[in-house]
What does this fold into?
Amino acid sequence: MVVKGKVLPLFECGYKGWRLAGVDEVGRGPLIGAVVTAAVILNPEQPIEGLADSKKLSEKRRLSLYDEILEKAAAWSLGRCEAAEIDQLNIYQATMLAMRRAVDGLSIKPEYVLVDGNRCPKWSWPSEPVVKGDSRVAAISAASIIAKVTRDREMAELEQKYPGFGLAQHKGYPTPVHLEALATLGVTPEHRRSFRPVQEALDAVGLYRHESKNCDKELTYPVDLFENRD
It folds into this structure.
């Protein structure tokens, strides 16, 4: 498999049973909202074609696969850590905790867990990390799709609650549009105050108010260099 010009060896898991959970996360880099994780155990009797890294799929294809995963997976579960927990723990520890919550929530207990990335949480499950696992392991791909669709929808909801930030477009990443909105509108309760741009905006502008000047200003959305970098 070739990823960004690098040839990765095919991943072969020593565990050969079907109770294999794939785990992935979305939302480490954004300045706002929860970090969302998902755990998925696929049903070998109901294969799902086209599973891939959620960030490489079109939105239409991602949504189609999301519905198919919910219908066909043997088990799936979401985990999360909210902004306040991220501020208390730090983003790395919060991500590990959210992954534990996702696996703990599975209705079928896994016999083995594969985690996207290079580290696993400290837990009791037999497990191993898989670098670029969302492109190499079907169950991790499924988890990445569930997590991303879930968090993207939450960002669209937050945009309705806090208009003017463009959250539905950039998903909370520190884009120029988002940073400009912070500098103009202030910090919402959903922002991660331990992240430096949010700290700076809180010191300079304070808390978000709907009646703040320019909150109804129409913003333009350039190509987002930060989007899809979970």
Remarks:
- Confidence is low (pLDDT under 50) at residues 211-229.
